């Protein structure tokens, strides 16, 4: 049955729907898309004499910002009432650069963000802590003990505190590898760069000897006061909260940005990545390393750098090191409006909120949010898979009506009330097919 326009008349009270949840407050990430699959390799060798980095033959997503203390605190409160894997480090509380405190006893630990530290990058985390955070997101942010359903399986499989598999096929969220990180930081297709082939020297889209990054200054709460496209939190100038040798700053506030839109890749904190096991390891630093620079760095911004904090292995923590997550790409016609790789009633609520005045709920990429995007959501949530064609046939009216009832009910989920239940007047919903 093909329907070009459908009007559904509601003249009955709408009953609020209540849905049970086993998840904590949902962490929302800003993602950038790293496309241009099949890009050329970076021609500039690294200082450790390895080369051949940055060529990626698939599209993926990367966090626009480094993972923050607020996000990591949500994680800890969800899975670390007891903390057998030591996801929390006491330096987070005792050091000026740390941003999280813990109270209570094992079995009832609770975690809080220190004043003005919520939007600062989390630090004092190991590669293993970061991978467990990725597993937790992969598993839909559940609440519970640290086991296979929360932190010990997902994108990676842990068989001990520091024994872990490589990234698994089908991982939804994960730590980027060296090639993914380098591409997101330094590559710009078609750019006229000194290195050639579109590869910049610095993640702020500048080259050595042409424009060197400027140091950031901060205010009393750690926000950068001189933001710009080439301003970086490094060289120990971001001092606040009593620090004298640099400190973390609010993520993204420096203003530097890679071609794909990632911020702070040259500074603030080093970021854990997974090393390419096929590359020589002349210094014996192992399968995990870091990229970028930190607030303490005097250099370390260039694309030739690798393994910059070699005195830290992947099981150790430091005030200088945090992480940024990567994620699998989305279908371009996906109704996953909150980009968590799932299609749920949360996406339906976002569609409802953005209807007619935003492109947040634009599943079909036609520049607006309308009934066609709702139909895309309906097909995908029912089938459990992304929309495969923008011309999929419209569902039968009975199915559509049930979905519309869900739509109205979904608006009640987070507000705790139904805005429509007192209205006896008709509710017209105009739905257009593609």
Describe this structure in a few short sentences.
By secondary structure, the chain is α+β, with helices and mostly antiparallel strands. 18% of the residues lie in helices and 12% in strands. Helix 5 packs antiparallel against helix 6 and helix 5 packs across helix 7.
Give a description of the structure.
The strands form six sheets. Strands 2-3-14-8 form a four-stranded antiparallel sheet. A three-stranded mixed sheet has the order 12-11-13, with helices on one face. The longest helix has 19 residues, at 397-415. It is globular, with a radius of gyration of 24 Å. It is an alpha+beta fold. It folds into two domains: 5-22 and 336-432, no CATH class; 33-203 and 264-324, paralog of FGE (formylglycine-generating enzyme). It has helices at residues 69-79, 91-94, 127-138, 178-186, 345-354, 371-383, 397-415; strands at 5-10, 31-34, 60-63, 100-103, 110-113, 158-160, 163-164, 173-174, 214-215, 231-232, 270-274, 288-291, 321-322, 326-328, 427-432.
Helix-strand layout with pairing:
Layout: E1 5-10, E2 31-34, E3 60-63, H1 69-79, H2 91-94, E4 100-103, E5 110-113, H3 127-138, E6 158-160, E7 163-164, E8 173-174, H4 178-186, E9 214-215, E10 231-232, E11 270-274, E12 288-291, E13 321-322, E14 326-328, H5 345-354, H6 371-383, H7 397-415, E15 427-432
Helix pairs in contact: 5-6, 5-7
């Amino acid at each position: 049955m093909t329907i070009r326009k459908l009007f559904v008349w509601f003249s009955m009270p709408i009953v609020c729907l209540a849905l049970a949840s086993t998840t904590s407050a949902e962490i929302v990430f800003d993602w950038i898309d790293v496309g241009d699959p099949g890009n050329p390799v970076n021609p500039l060798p690294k200082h450790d004499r390895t080369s051949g980095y940055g060529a990626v033959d698939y599209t993926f997503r990367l966090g626009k910002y480094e993972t923050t203390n607020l996000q990591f605190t949500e994680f800890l409160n969800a899975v670390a009432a007891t903390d057998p894997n030591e996801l929390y480090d006491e330096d987070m509380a005792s050091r000026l650069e740390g941003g999280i405190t813990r109270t209570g006893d094992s079995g009832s630990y609770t975690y809080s963000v220190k004043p003005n530290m919520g939007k600062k990058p989390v630090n004092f985390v190991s590669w293993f802590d970061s991978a467990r955070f990725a597993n937790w997101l992969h598993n839909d942010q559940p609440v519970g003990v640290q086991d296979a359903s929360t932190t010990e399986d997902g994108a990676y499989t842990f068989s001990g505190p520091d024994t872990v598999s490589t990234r698994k096929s089908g991982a939804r969220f994960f730590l980027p590898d060296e090639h993914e990180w380098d591409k997101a930081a330094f590559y710009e297709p078609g750019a006229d760069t000194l290195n050639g082939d579109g590869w910049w020297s610095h993640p702020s889209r500048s080259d050595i000897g042409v424009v060197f990054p400027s140091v950031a200054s901060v205010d009393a709460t750690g926000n950068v006061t001189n933001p710009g496209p080439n301003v970086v939190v490094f060289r120990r100038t971001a001092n606040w909260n009593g620090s004298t040798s640099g400190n973390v700053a609010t993520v993204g506030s420096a203003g530097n940005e890679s071609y794909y839109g990632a911020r702070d890749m040259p500074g603030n904190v080093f970021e854990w990545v997974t090393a390419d096991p096929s590359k020589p390891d002349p210094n014996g630093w192992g399968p995990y390393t870091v990229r970028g620079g930190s607030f303490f760095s005097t250099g370390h911004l260039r694309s030739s750098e690798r393994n910059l904090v070699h005195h830290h292995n992947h099981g150790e923590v430091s005030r200088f090191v945090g992480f940024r997550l990567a994620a699998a790409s989305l279908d371009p016609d996906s109704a996953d409006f909150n980009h968590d790789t799932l299609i749920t009633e949360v996406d339906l609520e976002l569609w409802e909120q953005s209807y007619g005045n935003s492109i947040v709920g634009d599943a079909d990429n036609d520049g607006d949010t309308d009934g066609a995007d709702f139909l895309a959501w309906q097909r995908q949530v029912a089938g459990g898979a992304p929309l495969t064609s923008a011309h999929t046939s419209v569902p039968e009216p009975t199915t559509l009506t049930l979905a519309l009832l869900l739509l109205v009910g979904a608006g009640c989920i987070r507000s705790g009330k139904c805005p429509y239940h007192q209205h006896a007047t008709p509710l017209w919903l105009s739905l257009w097919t593609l």
